[in-house]
Write a structure and sequence with these properties.
60% of the residues lie in helices and 7% in strands. The chain has 123 residues and is mainly alpha-helical. A two-stranded antiparallel ribbon has the order 1-2.
């Protein structure tokens, strides 16, 4: 598992951790049933607060990406690809809705909003 924290990112650190772990789980880089570093170990490795890693792990567990096994730690949840896909689709739609709202509030036309989206798709 590789997590890179960007201090200049607009995303809070816990969200950066969540997004990177979700991506690695969905891509299979971190396979189902693999044990994750402890909350304290991840905090130490990333040189961040234990509170931050706890928040990331709790959010990932609530979303079904990881599970906590009492006395043993956190593990990648067995993959239910359809369920994961639906969750990611919901998150994408929520993000797009916010982006469109922000664009309209900024006075952008639909064509300008679509052009901005196309730039992200090309990256």
């Amino acid at each position: 598992m590789k997590i890179i924290i960007k201090n200049k990112s607009e995303l809070p650190i816990y969200e950066q951790i969540e997004q990177q772990m979700k991506t690695q789980i969905l891509e299979g880089t971190i396979p189902a049933d693999e044990q994750l570093p402890s909350i304290r170990q991840l905090a130490k490795d990333l040189r961040i607060s234990v509170i931050t890693t706890t928040r990331a792990y709790n959010d990932l567990a609530e979303e079904g990406f990881i599970i906590s096994v009492a006395g043993k730690g956190y593990f990648v949840a067995p993959r239910d690809n359809e369920l994961m896909r639906e969750r990611m689709l919901f998150e994408m739609e929520d993000g797009l809705e916010k982006a469109v709202t922000n664009g309209r509030n900024a006075g952008l036309t639909n064509d300008e909003i679509m052009e901005a989206l196309k730039k992200f798709l090309e990256e």
